[in-house]
Write a structure and sequence with these properties.
SOUL_heme-bd, about 15% helix, 3 helices, Reg_factor_effector_dom_sf, Multidrug-efflux Transporter 1 Regulator Bmrr, Chain A
């Protein structure tokens, strides 16, 4: 019932608030590990959520490999992030196929990130918690060198903080899933409730960028949409954020 009523019980990325205004915060985030997928929202309204949920094992057997075993369940975190690949590529260094370093044993299960960690037992799955938010960002038509739009989006799950490096993370078996490390960054952030429709997000981005400009901050890229709750959460109890990268 907590999920329907907006209670966030999963792990969320840590940050420091270094300044604030009437309608925004300036936050500094440390580095973390994300799993991401690109998708066309005009063809798949659920976006990359199902692909990423399958990777961590939120909906069944995890679609990943760790060492010589398969099926580590990764705990889910919040928020889920939807991002533009251009901005994303500036902030996140891409790696080759992720290598992992798991101890001997049978498959571990990785969940999306609320710190619910359980130790692995031989012959059983290790459950890893889910996090929030989910992040989404628009992918530009030119790969990031200009302002054109491609209609493509990038969705990210922030992996649990127990994953300190790329070698710790199970390798996806679905080639559409990419695992990357995100470097420390600064954002201007505004929080709002309700359904994060395209129109509402555009309004929030415009208001945020205006406030940041008036306060003397320099925006360095496209916005990121962070969503903390599942779609069945009562709309007015949902937590959403628009995040704008800053110099």
């Amino acid at each position: 019932m907590g999920l329907a009523f907006g209670k966030i019980t999963v792990e969320t990325p840590k940050y420091a608030v270094v300044a604030s205004g009437a309608d925004y915060e300036i936050r500094e985030y440390g580095s973390n590990i994300v799993a991401e997928v690109s998708y066309d929202p005009s063809k798949d309204r659920s976006g990359g959520f199902m692909i990423l949920a399958n990777f961590i094992g939120a909906l069944g057997n995890p679609q990943n490999v760790k060492g010589d075993r398969s099926g580590e369940k990764i705990a889910m975190t919040a928020p889920v992030l939807t991002t533009d690949e251009a901005v994303h590529s500036e902030k996140i260094s891409m790696t080759a196929p992720v290598l992992t370093c798991q101890e001997e044993g049978l498959p571990e299960k990785i969940e999306m990130t609320a710190p619910v960690l359980s130790s692995q037992e031989e012959g059983h799955a290790e459950k890893i918690s889910m996090t929030a938010p989910v992040l989404t960002e628009e992918k530009p038509a030119d790969g990031g060198s200009g302002g054109g739009k491609s209609g493509m989006m990038v969705m990210q799950f922030v992996l649990p903080s127990k994953y300190k490096c790329l070698d710790d993370v199970p390798r996806p078996t679905d080639p559409r899933v990419r695992v990357k490390e995100v470097s420390p960054r600064k954002y201007g952030v505004t929080t709002f409730s309700g359904i994060a429709s395209e129109k509402l997000v555009e309004v929030k981005v415009s208001e945020l960028e205006k406030s940041l400009h008036e306060a003397g901050y320099k925006v360095t890229g496209r916005h990121v949409l962070a969503q903390y709750n599942p779609p069945w959460t009562i709309p007015f109890l949902r937590k959403n954020e628009v995040m704008v990268p800053l110099e």
